[in-house]
Amino acid sequence: MFVLEKQRQRAPSARSLQTRARILDAAEQFFAARGFEGASIRDIAKAAGVQGGLVAHHGGSKEELFHLIVARRAGELSRLRIEALETARACAPLNLGTILDCFVRPYVELAQGGDPRWVAYGRLVAHVSADPRWRDLAAECFDPTAQRFIAEIAALFPGAPPGTVAAGQVYAVSAMLAHVHSAWRIGALSPGSDAVGLDRLIAFCTAGVYAILTSDT
Amino acid sequence: MFVLEKQRQRAPSARSLQTRARILDAAEQFFAARGFEGASIRDIAKAAGVQGGLVAHHGGSKEELFHLIVARRAGELSRLRIEALETARACAPLNLGTILDCFVRPYVELAQGGDPRWVAYGRLVAHVSADPRWRDLAAECFDPTAQRFIAEIAALFPGAPPGTVAAGQVYAVSAMLAHVHSAWRIGALSPGSDAVGLDRLIAFCTAGVYAILTSDT
DNA sequence: CCTTATTTTGAACGGTCGTTCAACTTAAGA
DNA sequence: TCTTAAGTTGAACGACCGTTCAAAATAAGG
């Protein structure tokens, strides 16, 4: 899967970096909208305004390109979530609602902020989660942060079985993704602040996770 | 999208019905495993043991075939859910947990029962829900039953905003799908009964929906 | 300013895709 | 039994796929 790259002898030019960014952004949109097989290298190249061969030059094979796109966005989001967690911990002792807030809020605010790249990323995550083909990619990009939050929650509920904490995490993530990419099914977005919907989502997740962690069975 | 078909002049033979079923089942597996674009007519034909042209004869175009497969399974599941709801209503006044149980349990038991066709259907639903391309299909196949359950829940919480009930329904569905097709992320299935996991899922959904329906905001 | 690593082009390669269709086989209905 | 609608085959169509590569253009580093 991964071959070690030849050592660079020169710094990339500004133009090359811009081209690379255009290719990755275009690929992100097409992969998100049409899935891995549905997105074609030629469509991506045309949207980025380059020749097809250049996509391979900057992104490698189609699989490597997909991996690259998911990993770069996941890394940035992971950083934001961990930062939110540390900030919250510095203010007050963590509770369940705060922990889930730190996980859910960063992404939902990015996606609802209107940046099409983060909306696309949500669809990408949905594709990756739905297809067992991407199991390794999910494990690499999503699991470390998820494990971190699972550990925080488990520390609050010492008696809860580990599997139950993990289940709550998975359910919460799925509800978060549905909140973003199935918003049209919930109804037309309210013209005012979207924060109401976000708070409602976090309340749903918190109550659900709390219920299964404190149940007797 | 839909042309009116020529009137049949003869009943289909038993062999033809079997062939048709083999084609639809094979298509269901490939669409579920690889998505719409990832599944090829030739793979489906080979798995069904027929020539490629026969797939078009029984299933129409690729889009029509996809629609056919989702609709037939959705119709059957919808019937089971409504039956469960009516049975429960006959026994005792409905409450939130019972309503959600009637929605979630029929599918999860089918999928966890080991029938690969129902496991495949779960992945199909995930694909349909993740891709805006299938918005109309989702509206046709999923919304009527969802609306029915939303109405039942709304009747229990007269003061709750309609959008909040719909949000709870969408979150619950997403958690249910995650429970089935992301079970590997929650952990190895317990060797004993899977009903424990199902009860936990229903408890999660019930507590979450209840929380957002009774919140002040 | 040179040298040359890097970026970019343009075209081509072998395959696979969804779809179509004439010809052949099967079996329903009179 | 006979007619013929329906089922099935096998091959072909044009289009698009991911990938490769020699050659040209660009620009970093000495």
Q: Please count the helical segments of chain A.
A: 11
* Rg estimate of chain A, integer Å: 19 Å
Distance between the termini of chain A: 43 Å
Largest interface: A-B, 54 and 55 residues
Structural class of chain A: mainly alpha
The average pLDDT of chain A is: 90
Oligomer: homodimer
Largest sheet of chain A: none
Helix and strand layout, with pairings?
2 copies of one chain form a homodimer.
Chain A: H1 14-38, H2 41-48, H3 52-59, H4 62-91, H5 96-112, H6 116-130, H7 135-141, H8 143-156, H9 162-181, H10 183-186, H11 195-214
Chain A binds a DNA duplex (30 and 30 nucleotides) through α1 and α3.
Folded structure, characterized:
The structure is a homodimer of 217-residue chains. Chain A is mostly helical and 217 residues long. Chain A has a domain at 69-214: Tetracycline Repressor, domain 2 (Orthogonal Bundle). Chain A contains 11 helices and no strands. The termini of chain A are far apart. The relative contact order of chain A is 0.10. The interface between A and B is large, with 54 and 55 residues. Chain A binds a DNA duplex (30 and 30 nucleotides) through residues 8-13, 15-16, 19, 40-42, 50-54, 56-58, 61-62.
